[in-house]
Automatic annotation (TrEMBL):
It is a single-pass type II membrane protein. The chain crosses the membrane at residues 20-38. One of its GO terms (cellular component) is membrane. GO terms for molecular function: acetylglucosaminyltransferase activity. Its main location: membrane. This is Uncharacterized protein. Coiled coil: none annotated. The keyword tRNA processing does not apply. InterPro entries: Glyco_trans_14.
């Protein structure tokens, strides 16, 4: 008989267990509701580019193509994007003869001469200022490049795959000119996610190439950037 009384007074007896379960349930429910109401960067819904913004981007890309010497006269994009067009064979033949003229010494000077070089570069090459989709925002990538010369070509290539959520490492060949190195340092100051460094002198097909790539991965790791995939 005395054993039974003791059992009844025990807090964890079967009489109380439902109350405990209920209390825990309420506690976790409140805690979960509170926690899920805190907005996190990962789940934040990205505001997509509006039609007006897309029109502006299109206009800017057009400016970047206008800078290319004799591009417009030789390459007709509307025809080349439409193989059904009767003028297509002629347009394709003409476009295939056009080549990228990189030795344009005044090219960089026009950006240097402006009071805000970063803004001029950003606008001319239409670097994206926000991710294009929520999926891309949540899956940032890392890129490594090894470059030697030609800032003009580099800006065209870089702006084509630049996205603000990604991380970029640009390794500059130790043999590059001082001017080229300085130009890249300027680009680095314009974009917080572009990291630039000078490697050893790279020999053709030399072991310095994979070394530069691995150094890039190292540098990108140091930056504490949440990139998920390196290419
Ligand atoms: C392209 O167009 C320009 C101007 O019309 C012309 O001078 C040039 O020879 C053309 N061809 C190439 C391959 O650039």
């Amino acid at each position: 008989m005395s054993v039974r009384i003791h059992f009844r007074r025990n807090l964890f007896s079967f009489r109380h267990i439902e109350k405990w379960i209920f209390t825990f349930y309420i506690f976790f429910k409140i805690a979960f509701t509170f926690y899920s109401s805190i907005p996190s960067d990962e789940t934040e819904i990205l505001e997509p580019y509006s039609i007006v913004e897309f029109k502006q981007l299109k206009k800017r890309i057009s400016i970047a193509l206008d800078i290319l010497l004799s591009f417009r006269e030789n390459v007709s994009c509307p025809i080349l994007f439409n193989p059904e067009d009767q003028r297509y064979p002629e347009a394709a033949a003409k476009a295939s003869k056009w080549y990228f003229e990189s030795s344009d010494w005044n090219f960089w000077r026009q950006f240097e001469a402006t009071p805000n070089t970063c803004e001029a570069l950003q606008k001319t090459f239409s670097f994206f200022t926000k991710p294009l989709s929520q999926v891309e925002a949540e899956y940032p990538l890392a890129y490594g490049m090894l470059v030697y010369k030609d800032i003009k070509q580099l800006l065209y290539v870089l702006s084509a795959f630049y996205q603000p959520q990604n991380a970029y490492c640009i390794a500059i060949d130790g043999r590059s000119s001082g001017a080229f190195k300085t130009q890249l340092q300027t680009i680095q100051t314009c974009f917080p996610n572009i990291h630039v460094f000078v490697t050893k002198r790279i020999e053709y097909c030399g072991p310095q190439i994979p070394e530069a790539v691995l150094t890039c991965v190292d540098k990108l790791n140091e930056r504490n950037h949440p990139w998920k995939y390196f290419q």
